[in-house]
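BUG: 3D viewer hangs when loading the predicted structure for this chain

Environment: internal workstation, default settings.
Expected: structure renders.
Actual: progress bar stalls at 90%.

Input used:
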Amino acid sequence: MKPCFTPWRVLCVGVAWMALALSVTPARAAQPDAALAARIDAYIGQPRFAGASWGIAVASLDDGRTLYAHHADRLLQPASTAKLYTAALALATLGGDYRLPTRLLARDAVRRGRLHGPLVLQGSGDPTLGTPAHADWADQLAAQLDARGIRRIQGDLIADDGFFRGPAIGAGWEAGDLQAAFAAPATALGVDENSVRVTVTPAAAPGQPAQVAFATDDSGMRLDNQLRTVATAADEDIHLYRAPGTATLHAFGTVAAGSAPRHYKLSLPDPAAVAARRLLAALARHRIRVDGALQVRRWPQDERELLAGTRVLAQVLSPPLGQILHDGLKRSQNLYLQNLLAHVGTRLPVDAATDHADSDQRAIAALQALLGRAGIAPTAARIVDGNGLSRRNLTTANALVRVLTYLAATPQAARLRDALPLAGVDGSLAARLRGTAAQNNMRAKTGSMAYVQCLAGYVTSAAGERLVFAIMLNNDTSPSEARAAVDTIAAMLADAGRRN
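Structure tokens produced before the viewer hung:
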């Protein structure tokens, strides 16, 4: 069973849908909602926002008029609302039913149950391997080899992580984030969302070493544990540090005796190697012997010679792209969207001018072309990664509203809306906007990083009008107050048109 690689013409179809969505907007002067504008202006005009930067755009999906705009063409950092651009590109290029394959490949013949030569485990960016949605992927592959009668691999197991061309770290990601699970490397072959859970447990008595344990024993990480147990919580100071590019986790500082275990999620240093070890374990369970060693091949190594003449012996497919987007947008799961961006880049045509461009660069070029044909100027949205972690991402509130307007007019509209967090109910909005008119009404993508709070999506006003909006706040130094400020404006949108 082969995945359907959608050609470039589908991108043109997506562009056509975007042009249609924007062409239905009435070409007339904006008609702001005076009462709504007065409320928002009074709120953002407070002295506490004097050093901050706002960008807000609100429009009607029903008739296209602009209800409110404040610096709507100002470039600001979008944080995770940039995921909306990746979603638009992935849906336009690949479609919601597309699935990403993970394969076992071989060039040599199988005789009497023996594969003479190496077995290649090739990933193409499925970010769900090892998650509850795809927990048995390795056993599925091993079972397919078993069904072919293969009992022995007389060669190496080669983990091929070269499907994505380019670094596994996005442009503009902060070095201090790289050991955290939310900044896990975007690899073509990985497992467990390229992260591992680490548990810190105090010893029974002060002065003794604390326990630091990995949730799995195949993470490939070494531990340097200098963490000590102390008597009181006031003296507690836990530090976990892994330098970028290394595999040693340094644990130091102090943890209070009698305190509950602490859990942390950290990025894996070599996800492809962990995936290969999972496959080796599955092969052993199916009594398939591997004689050789485990190798990992990754960019910029040239994989053409490795893959030349190979055939597919086994294959598993990811959940549909629509489901990956659903999980990625609900939880704001960075790896999912970054992998989708890179995978789109691998599916685009290559010519002499783009032969050395990496996967992300190709996808970003396609995104800029898509937005340009929709009337969004290159200066209105400069996106460099797929998940919004980069500090180099810039967009205007108006550009986000245009993208959301496009998405609302595509055949994927219902799927996309369902994938967005629902205020006060689920995802990254589960604990927000409760007790307001936005609860169980507003569907929006959150975006948050240091000094950045954003929210963009859809809401039905109290007057029954369907609204599309983007609220962007940059350079506010109080994270909790900035989030509350964005939510206050979001609640105003849900309340718009309410009669006192």
